[in-house]
Amino acid sequence: MAIGIDKLSFYTSEYVLDLVELAQRRGVDPNKYTIGIGQDKQSVIPNYEDVVTMGANAAAKIIDNDDRQQIDLIIFATESGIDNSKSSALYVQKLLNLSEFSRTIEIKQACYAGTFGLMQARDYVANHSGKRVLVIASDIARYGLNTPGEVTQGGGAVAMIVSESPRIATINSDSVYMSRDVADFWRPIDRTEAIVDGHLSTDIYKEMFLTLWQRYKEQSGRTIADFAGFSFHLPYTKMGKKAFDQIIDEADEIPQGRLLKNLKASQKFSRQVGNLYTGSVYLSLLSLLSYAQDLVAGEQLAIFSYGSGAEAELYSITLQENFFKYVPANETKKELADRKKVSVDQYEQIFNSQLLDSHENVSSDHPDADHFQFLGWQNGERRYK
Ligand code: CAA
User: Fold this and answer.
1) What's the pTM value of the predicted model, to 2 decimals?
2) What is the spatial distance between Cα 244 and Cα 44, in angstroms, rounded to a whole number?
3) Quick check: 1 and 126 in contact, CB under 8 A?
4) 49, 79, 106, 150: which one is catalytic?
5) Is residue 159 a contact partner of residue 61, using CB atoms and an 8 Å limit?
6) Is 124 marked as binding a ligand?
7) Is 233 a catalytic residue?
8) Which domains does the chain have, with CATH numbers?
9) What are the pLDDT digits (tens) for 182-191?
C-alpha cells in the first residue's frame, strides 16, 4: 500500500521585514544578504504567535471531518517549543478539536525533527491501516539582533497529513541517514537564542549531504538522472545551493539545466520567509511544487533534511496523479504577498517584546483575528484562543 503526503500547508506570521533595509541599518552591503546569503525577506513573529499557534493555523487549513475521524497520532516537531514538559501537540489537539482518542507527542532534534516525524508517520500508517497522522513542523528561528545569524532568522509552520493512497506524493522506503555529535548549533534550556557556528554548520551540512548522496546511490542503484528536482533544508537559500553544487556535474547538460531551474523554484518561498528550522525543508518542497512548471506524476524528488548537532537524512518521494491540484500554491503566494511590512525599528521592538516570563500575568498584543493566537500568561499557564 502506498503511503505518503496526502495534504500539505504552510502558515507564517502577518509581518515581514525587508532585508535590504536591515542591511542598510546594519551597515552591510545589501548584496551580501540577497546574493551572498540568498535571502530577500524574513517573517517577523509577534508575541501573539508561537509554535503552537503557527502549527495549529497551518493545520487548520487542511483538516476536514474525515481527518478528524481518522487522525490517530499528532506529531509536533519543534526546536522552539513552549514547555519543558507538556507537548505542543496537546494544545493543537484541543485548538483543532481533534479526537482525544489519539496519541500526541512532541519531538526535537534541531531542524531535523520534522523529517523524523514524517518517517514515524509513514511507519505508523503502515502498521495501522486506515489511520492518518498529522505531522506539524513549527519553529521561530532567533539568533539575536545585530548578530551574524540575524539575516537568517524567520519562522512559520508546515503541516502535513500522512495517509494511505496519498494525493500529493508517496514517501519511498529508500532513506539513508546519519548522525554525529557536532557543536555547530545548540540552545541550552535557559536561552532563547541559539549558539551557532554558522561556518562549521555549512561545512557539516555539505559533508553530510555528499556522504549520504554517495550512500544513497550505492544502496538504491539510482543516479541524479532519476530525479526531477531536489528540496533542501534551507536555513538560508545559499546553503542548499552550496550542497547541490557538489553533485550537479553528475547530470548531463539538459537535465542539469532543469535541475538548477527547479532548485531556484524550491528556494522561492524560503527567500521570503527565512528559516523555520524543522519546517524549512518542507517549505522548500512546497515551493518546488508551487513554482516548477514541468513536474509530472510519477517523477521523483529528492529531499535532504539536516538538523544541526547534527543529523541528516536523504530520501525520495514520488509525485501522484494530479498532485498539483492539492498543492496550495496560489494560496501560499498570496498570503506571503499580503503580509504587512515592518520597519527595522518595528522589527526590533517586536523581537524584544516576546513574553518569556511565565511568572507574570500578562497579555500579548493580539489583535482581533480569526486565527489562533497566544493570549498571554495566566498563573503560569499559556492561554490561547
Ligand atoms: N556581495 C555579494 N556577496 C557577498 C558580499 C557582497 N557584498 N559580501 C559577502 N558576500 C558573500 C560571501 O562571499 C559569502 O559567500 P560564500 O558563502 O558563497 O563564500 C556569503 O556572502 C556570506 O558571507 P560570510 O560568510 O562572510 O557571512 P557571515 O560570516 O556573516 O556568516 C552565515 C553567514 C554563516 C550564514 C551567518 O549568517 C550565520 O551564522 N547564520 C546562522 C547559521 C545557520 O543558519 N546555520 C545553519 C544551521 S542549520 C539550522 O537551520 C539550525 C538547526 O538545525 C535548527
Assistant:
1) 0.98
2) 29
3) yes
4) 79
5) yes
6) no
7) yes
8) 3-169+328-384 (3.40.47.10), 171-323 (3.40.47.10)
9) 999 999 999 9
